[in-house]
Amino acid sequence: MSPIEFQSETVKESIANKRSGSLSMTTSDNQNVPFILIADDDQFTRMMLRQLMEQEGYQVAEVENGEQCLAAYPVYKPDMVLLDAMMPVMDGFTCCAKLQSLTGGRTPVLMITGLNDQASVDWAFEAGTTDFVTKPIHPPVLRQRVRRILKASWAEKALRKSEEKYRSVVENVKEVIFQTDVAGNWTFLNPAWTMLTGFAVEESLGTNFLNYVYPDDQKLHQELWRLLLGGQKASCRYELRYVTKAQQCRWMEIHAHPTLGLDNAVTGISGMLRDITETIYTQALEKEKVRLETEVIERKRTEEIIRSALETEKELGELKSLIITTISHEFRTPLTAILGSAELLRHYGKTWSDEKRLKHFQRIDESVQHMTQLLNDVILMGEVEAGQLQCNPTQLDLEKLCREIVEELQLSLESKQEGQENNAPGIDFLVRGNVTQANADEKLLRQVLTNLLSNAKKFSSQGTIVRFHLVCQEGQVIFRIQDEGIGIPSAEQERVFESFYRASNVGTIPGTGLGLAIAKKCIDLHQGQIALESKVGVGTTFTVKLPLT
After folding, report:
1. If DSSP codes are grouped into helix, strand and coil, which group holds residue 397?
2. 80 in helix, strand or coil?
3. Whole-angstrom Cα distance, residue 546 to residue 549?
4. Among 9, 30, 83, 344, which has the highest number of CB atoms less than 10 A from its own CB?
5. How many CB atoms lie within 10 A of CB 391?
6. pLDDT digits (tens, 9 = 90+) for 139-198
7. How far apart (Å, rounded) are the C-alpha atoms in residues 200 and 191?
8. Chain centre distance of CA 232
């Protein structure tokens, strides 16, 4: 080990002992008191400088030369160094240069020199000194320089700390922080830009923002930028699409505002980009899911209503059985598909890709559309069977209408039995009362009387008589149709007006079970009433009451 190296090690040990010994007792309660390191080979000067600094309330340590100063610096970590320019072993200029190299140029150094020539001044500043004072030292000047340098150093440290904190935030946030110039070229982008778009910050800086905007959104982007640069808008928030390096489209939420210079002139645009692609897709999928689930619920409710209605009509004829079979079969397949996809989405939808989830939503949608078409077909059949009934009353001659209907039925029957013996039941028409005029819908009333008379003849035995009475009373008209047919079982009389219902004793007599249902609907539209009396093997009497006006 050389003498100099030995001396350096000895100095370090001495400084360390001082730091852990005497200084530990004076600094424990003064963590925020500035610490001054004095380096001067003249003992008197060091004592004077110590006294001046301690009078200012500073903590002080002193060394004799530049090498000791370098050894003491990492131990004390002083806030400032008072450094003599000319010292043995290592002069102040060399020591200052090494200190600044060691600390990255952040150490405030006040050079104390007896030299006042321009070369020495230049040399001092080239070495990294903050300022200098010349000998002989004037205490007021020294105090003021130290205060000013410390104040500036503290301000610089606070600014540096603030910048580091800001840079840490900017570099670690997921959102893109950006700045552009007035031409729209990127001047600043944080690392999130690369994570979001795949483009390196270095390759993007200096390029125009429109290069990264989805073509269909460029016009909107330009217009908003123009409004910001022109001062028509103080800020803006909107959503548009950017294109990544992999040519993928990503939705961005943009917050932007003009950047102002020192003279308040607009120098560009600053703001933030946030990737909302997943949010947009999730909202779209959720909206579609809710819509489909709502449709499924409504279709299932409708299907349950239809199924319930069909199940209560177990003894309908051939047409009703066909409808039940068709509905049950056709609804089972789409319902199975809907329930299956809904179950899969409920359990695995969060882990599937958007494409796979959309495939199942599409499957549900197609099944719902199929069910909707089936329901429309059933509703249409109901409208046809009901004749899309609307009541349009006009003034009618009821007697004339009834005679026309009787004549038409007789002629129809005769036409069917032409060339055969006519043993069909006859119709005995009788009118009671003087007023035979009424306000009614001729089409609907004809449907009612035709259905009732046709049923009476159809379910009556050969050679019997169907009695048809028209009774006009004050305020109402009564139609009474009585046959001598097979009758209706008493337990089934309440159901004969239901669609597709046929009594259990009709046997092979043809019919759809719609005649009485249609008649009942027509009478209801006239604000009328219909009632029946029947006994199996004896016959049936239907009584219809309608208001005259």
Report:
1. strand
2. strand
3. 9
4. 83
5. 15
6. 999 999 999 999 988 888 877 777 766 666 656 678 888 999 999 999 999 888 988 899
7. 8
8. 31
Q: Beta-carbon neighbour count of residue 496 at 10 Å?
A: 21
Rg (alpha carbons) of the chain, rounded to whole number:
53
Helix axis angle, 139-172 to 43-55, nearest 10°: 70
Strand order in the sheet with 176-181: 186-189, 176-181, 266-275, 249-260, 236-243
Residue the block writes with tokens 């209605």? 309
Collect the ranges in the chain with pLDDT lower than 70. Answer: 1-31, 164-172, 309-333, 366, 369-370, 372-389, 412-424, 500, 510-512, 514
Q: pLDDT value at position 2?
A: 38
Q: Tokens standing for 375?
A: 């329901």
State the helix-helix crossing angle for 515-525 and 354-386, rounded to 10 degrees: 80
The crossing angle, in degrees rounded to 10, of helices 354-386 and 277-311 is 30
Q: What is the rounded CA–CA span in Å between residue 475 and residue 472?
A: 8
The H-or-E segment that residue 522 falls in is helix 515-525
For 398, the token pair is 């009821």
Residue type, 452: L
Going by their DSSP bridges, the two strands 109-113 and 80-84 should be labelled as parallel
> Quick one: residue 511, left, alpha or beta (phi over 0 = left, psi -120 to 50 = alpha)?
left
- What pLDDT score was predicted for residue 351? 84
Determine the Cα–Cα distance for residues 338 and 487; give it in Å rounded to an integer. Answer: 48
Q: Which residue has the tokens 């270095």?
A: 202
* pLDDT tens column, 252-275: 899 999 988 878 888 899 998 988
